[in-house]
Amino acid sequence: MRQPNDLSAFWLPFTPNRHFKTAPRMLTRADGMYYYDGTGRALLDACAGLWCVNAGHGRKEIAEAIARSARELDYAPNFQFAHPQAFTLAQRIAALAPEGLEHVFFVNSGSEACDAALKVARAYFQKIGQGSRFQLIGREKGYHGVTFAGISTGGIGNNRKPYGPLLPGTDDHLPLPYGASMRFTRGEPEQGADYADSLEALVALHGAETIAAVIVEPMAGSGGVFASPKHYLKRLRALCDRHGILLIFDEVITAFGRLGYGFAAERYKVTPDIITFAKGVSNGAVPMGGIVVSNKIHDAFMGGADHQIELFHGHTYSAHPLACAAALATLDIYRDEDLFARARKLEPVLEEAVHELRSAPFVLDIRNVGLAAAIELESDPAAPGRRGYEVILRAFWDEDLVVRVSGDTIALSPPLIAPEADLSHIAEKVRRILKTLS
Ligand SMILES: Cc1ncc(COP(=O)(O)O)c(C=O)c1O
């Protein structure tokens, strides 16, 4: 791949641009567990891209499906027309979802999926004559993408603070179900289900009749890999039921095997009303996202005259033929290689590997669930985020490793195809990096 001779035009997202451009970390090729830079150096991918390349890089079946689709049907609108693969894919995704969630609405990213879920929740209550329900409750440290609805229900300060008044009706957030006593928990914490009860306080404050939905990630990912405590999601479900509030699981990360199942809803045996997905659905190869919606919600929209549009929402590229082709090929791989089960098998291996870092310098906490883990570092009080950034740099330049950080927390989410030895290699590399930090 030719290297560019001018780096100024591209404004990188979520990146310190000026420093990046002093020594750009270019990725030019990918295969299996590895990225390659322009010199041909292999870098172990500890994060499945951005939590999305669950079946590993360079999958030929996916590439071929995309190429076939590009030749056969480059583009088709899904407003008033459609193409067959969108229906097949919707059916395949719905089959992985809990019973009673049988309808899929496609978008192009996780952010758009969250936006669609929140809009559908509000519109549903309008449809059923409960338009007073408009409040959308998020959670501290929640990440629901970068639209105004996403940052408003999200709970990450830096993503919200620069953007002025946020979406009305999104002021309240549940607390993150986590406390210092839960440090170094393996998997789901035993304690903490009662954090869900804080929804009662919000109901008491506003009245249930004003609240449309609660949106949570079954595992807070971008906020720093926080597993749901045991029984927490069940308790939240029960409270939502008691007050007629919809429960949205943001499964943009947790779906398609990251927690060992098609959807985390299956792991926790909790059925939400809406599930968002993106990332792993197409193995990251073509942007795609969507929501799976309960029959109850879907059916509420299906009234009115024949010519009337039921939901005024959608994108030019909703259910793009190339994305559908990529997703169908991806789902075939997950099924044929039994990759969700493989993630369950790898979970204790990753757990063991990361918890051995407990004695490494600056380690404040280690958390893991499914095939995801976080190593939270003590922040430099004078420069929060500095250690995390140094981890990225040292990983890339010295350890041939691609990792992701959120502030001073290192997040690991390897592809589900990872050989067991790679999980130990990742942890060894992280240990060496931590030893160099100041
Ligand atoms: C839980 C969750 N929701 C939404 C998003 C936003 O997805 P995207 O970056 O595709 O817009 C992310 C991205 O990391 C996510 O982790």
Report on the architecture of this protein:
The chain is of the alpha/beta class. Helix content is 37%, strand content 16%. A 7-stranded mixed beta sheet has the order 4-12-11-10-7-5-6, sandwiched between helices. Strands 1-2-3-15 form a 4-stranded mixed beta sheet. Helix 3 (60-72) runs antiparallel to helix 12 (321-336) and helix 14 (386-398) packs across helix 15 (420-436). The longest helix has 18 residues, at 110-127. It is globular, with a radius of gyration of 21 Å. It starts with 16 loop residues before the first helix and ends with a helix. The model has no long low-confidence stretch (mean pLDDT 97). The site of pyridoxal-5'-phosphate has 14 residues, from helix 5. Residues 109-111, 114, 143-145, 217, 221-222, 250, 252-253, 278 line the site of pyridoxal-5'-phosphate (PLP).
Kindly list the characteristics that best describe this protein.
438 residues; alpha/beta; Aspartate Aminotransferase, domain 1; Aspartate Aminotransferase, domain 2; 2 domains; 7-stranded mixed beta sheet; 4-stranded mixed beta sheet; 15 helices; 17 strands; globular; binds pyridoxal-5'-phosphate
In short:
The chain is built from 15 helices and 17 strands. With 438 residues, it is of the alpha/beta class.
Low-confidence stretches: none
The class by helix and strand makeup works out as alpha/beta
Kindly provide the radius of gyration, computed on alpha-carbon positions and rounded to a whole number of angstroms.
21 Å
| Strand neighbour order, sheet with most strands | 4-12-11-10-7-5-6
Q: Sketch the major β-sheet.
A: 7 strands, mixed
CATH architecture of the largest domain: 3-Layer(aba) Sandwich
The CATH superfamily name of the largest domain is Type I PLP-dependent aspartate aminotransferase-like (Major domain)
Mean pLDDT: 97
Which small molecules are bound? pyridoxal-5'-phosphate
Query: How much β-strand is present in the residues?
Result: 15-25%
The percentage helix is 25-40%
State the domain count. Answer: 2
Distance between the termini: 36 Å
CATH topology of the largest domain: Aspartate Aminotransferase, domain 2
Assembly category: single chain
User: Given this structure, which CATH class of the largest domain is correct?
Assistant: Alpha Beta
Number of strands: 17
